[in-house]
Design goal:
The structure is a single chain. This protein is of the alpha/beta class. It has 2 domains: 142 residues, 3-Layer(aba) Sandwich (Rossmann fold), CATH 3.40.50.300; 68 residues, no CATH class. The chain has a 6-stranded mixed β-sheet with strand order 6-7-8-3-9-10. Strands 2-1-4-5 form a 4-stranded antiparallel β-sheet, covered by helices on one side. Strand 9 and strand 10 form a beta hairpin.
Length: 254
């Protein structure tokens, strides 16, 4: 799991994160939600080690990242998988080359071993073999997201981070990607952290939800508990979705 204790982060006079504590559980999809400017992106970048926190602690399965030496921090980083917003595939590489890229960078596997592993994870994300030799601009947005997920898990990560993984997709494709991420999380027992504003994702795969407001953790709970909360900051944010209102009404009547 990932455990965060009282972390703060500022950029000069701009105090972005203000004493946030949270716990992200293994084998579950952990969502970070909140309005624009609430600190979601900075929070995720701190978890990834892209921003150094000003105070507090971040533990990866009990290992305090702040006190690890360079080798220890590198070991944690190599245990991270990342699905970037917009997929962020390399335009000059085909699908197989994109997925095998981390293996070329960080392992001494043979070309045959890398191709076998790339095929394995691409099949796991349900991408057809006919797309393996295509370039990113030759496949759909949904297929690009599948490739991005395959690349993120090719190194068998312990922790998977996803930044708006279904942005730019139609509702059906977005739901498929959400369900795929949840399946992989449970199948491989990964600690998955998802930065999202999509209320459908909250309803469908929100095993654990952390709601940020103005740099503070305002609320945390599950997608079932969020229907019952009387926290006004949470309700004003999530119930702005008409679909969420309808689902909540059905849930409370059941």
């Amino acid at each position: 799991m990932i455990k965060v204790e009282n972390i703060s982060k500022s950029f000069e006079d701009n105090h972005v994160l203000k004493g946030i504590s949270a716990q992200f559980e293994k084998g579950k999809t952990n969502l970070i939600i909140g309005q624009s400017g609430s600190g979601k992106t900075v929070f995720m970048k701190c978890l990834l080690g892209l921003h150094e926190i000003d105070s507090g602690h971040i533990y990866f399965d009990g290992n305090d990242y702040q006190v690890l030496d360079a080798d220890g921090k590198m070991a944690i980083r190599r245990a991270l998988g990342m699905v970037f917003q917009g997929a962020a595939l390399f335009d000059s590489m085909n699908v197989l080359e994109n997925v095998s890229f981390p293996l070329k960078m960080f392992t001494d596997q043979s070309t045959s071993e890398m191709m076998d592993r790339a095929h394995e994870v691409l099949k796991r994300v349900n991408l057809k073999e006919e797309a393996f030799d295509r370039f990113p601009n030759e496949i759909s947005g949904g297929m690009q997201k599948r490739v991005a997920i395959a690349r993120a898990i090719v190194m068998n990560p312990n922790y998977l981070f996803c930044d708006e993984p279904n942005s730019g997709l139609d509702p059906k494709s977005a739901m498929i990607i959400d369900n795929l991420i949840q399946e992989i999380t449970q199948e491989y027992n990964i600690t998955t952290v998802i930065n999202t504003h999509d209320m459908n994702s909250v309803m469908e795969i929100g095993d654990k939800i952390v709601f940020l407001k103005d740099g503070y953790k305002e609320w945390e709970g599950s997608n079932k508990e969020i229907f019952k909360t009387d926290n006004q900051a949470v309700t004003s944010f999530v119930y702005s979705s008409d679909l969420f209102k309808k689902v909540r009404e059905v849930y409370l009547k059941s």
